[in-house]
Every structure is written in C-alpha cells, then in structure tokens.
Amino acid sequence: MRRVFEDEQLEFARISREDRVGYQVLCATASGDIVSARALSAGGMRYRAQSREDLPAVGDWVVLRWAESPETPGVRTSSDAMIVEMIPRRSRLLRQAAGVRTDAQVIAANLDVLFVVTSMNAEFEPRRLERYVLAAQESGSEAVIILNKSDLVDDPERYLEQARAVVPEHVQVIALCSLNGDTKALSPWLTPGSTCALVGSSGVGKSTLSNAIMQSEQQLTKEIREDDAEGRHTTTARHLLVLPDDQGVLIDTPGMRELQLWAGEDSGMDVLFSDIEELTTRCRFRNCQHEDEPGCAVQEALESGELDSGRLYSWRKLGRELEWRAKRQDVATQREESRRRGRMIKQIVKHRKNKKTHY
Fold it and tell me: Structure pTM?
C-alpha cells in the first residue's frame, strides 16, 4: 500500500538492490504501479549508525526525501532521493561480515521465508544445511530446504532422507528440478505480501529457480563445471524481485562459499539439535562433558547407533563456534561503546572551549 505523507517530498520505499554507490529502491505510484529509483543514505543516518547493521540493506523499508526542483519549488525532482529513515525490521538474516573486524552483515531484511537451496550432486552437504537452518532461526524467518536438480539422480529419496535427518521436524524439505520450470511445490510460501529469499552455494541453481518463479529470464545462469560439480558465480549482488500473479517478492542472493554464523540472543541450537539436547538431560552428572564420563547418555547413544557421530561432531563444533563468536561480539560492542563515549566527550570539550572563546 502506498503511504501518503503531508510533506510531498517524502515517500515510502523498499530497498531492492545495494551497491558501492548507493541503493536501488522500489516505490508505488498513485496508480499502484511499482517504479524503480536510485537513492543515497542521508549523512545523518550514516553518522548515527553504530555498525553496518544499522544501515539499510536489501529488503528494508525506508522513507525517502526527494529533492525539490530548482525551477519549481515545492515540486520534487524525479531522480534525486535521500534515505532519511529506516523502518524498524521485523526480521533480518545476519552473518559475520568478511574481514578481520567483528561486524554483522545483513544479507536480507524483513524476511518471512528462507529458501535454502542445495543440489543433488557432489555439492550436497548435510552439515551445511544445519548452518543455514541455525541462521534462519536466529533471523526469525521460516526455513525451507530445497533439494534442486532432481533430474541428476535416480533416487532423490536418498537425499531427502539425509536432509530430513539433520533438520527439525517443522522444517519442510522439498525436491524439485528448476530447469523444467515447475515451482508448484513452493506455492504455499509464495503468497501476497510475503518476502522470500534464496540462499545457498554457487551453482546449486538459485538463479534458474528464480527465473522459474518469475516466469522470465531475469537472472543470468551458467552451467556447473563437469569435473567437480562446483558452481560458477552468476548472481553478484542481492536483488529483490517483485513476483508475478501477486506472489509477494523474492530476494536472490550470490552464492556463499562459507556461512559464518552470527551469535544472536537465541542461537536455535536447542531446536536444531533437540535430539542431542534431550540426551544430555539423561546423563548421570549435570556437568557431564559427554566425552568419557560414566553414565553419559550421549556416549551410550553414540555406541548403540542411535546417534550419528557426524551429528555429534557438528553439535560440538557449532556450539564452540557460537560461544567464541559471542565473546568476540561482546568485546567488539564494548570497544565501540568506548569509542562512542570518547567522541561524545571530545564534542563536549570542544563545545565548552568554543563557548568560552565566544564570551
């Protein structure tokens, strides 16, 4: 719905693309049509931002201020827009940003559904699916696992069973072939007003799937390498697409070589690894480390075959990673708060000096 402001230079919009120069935004006209425009973030917004997470990202709802036409005061121009406010997010998908700094990168904002795409070939890795499900749970969006390229295997059920074995029962696992354009299995999530995102490694068919959902060649696609089934980067930036037939919007994302988790308030470990968490409650000792202690229910389940050794390894590895990440984030937050206080004190001292000089 188009939001009307008393100030004619203000307008509601949504971020559809981000680059080094600025943003591409989508706005609704008075007639209900969707138009695209360029916009920059206002200096005040950048100044107030304490981290990259506080700046607009693809999927964010924002308020634009259009520049006035110099020839006709009070009438906005059609090309110059500044983002002056960001509407609070109801969800956001985060990961640790690349580089040495401890900083969150917003992959997509205001998501309802996260389509985690993998393919039924050498790229398939259950441990990677666990990471994406954890990220989805921390974001507040619903995870749906899509096993693409079902045409490459004689027995898709084998892959479906492996995927279902590592995700919670409430997470849907779907097999399809995006090449044939059949996306009916995704219709329960492609609904009016919904925001979905495609994530996964390069070459799993995200762009092909995006084109199938859009019913047009919106995204460039390439064949995977035949020697190792590794993918080739075709999508180079996150892009929000308005779906036809009132199916909501879809955010296509570049392939991720690695998903470094961001430690939020609720990691989701207790949901993803509910089977292991339940076993830990049956151990003889409360402080059991689940190594070689007597009466360890986890080790007993491992020896009996009830618990897979790879899943136990993943539980330990992800738990240690999130714990380490949380400590790093706490230190980074404290340092940033110290720098912020330092800047504030410098401004106060400078203001007092200027005041004394003035009088």
Answer: 0.81
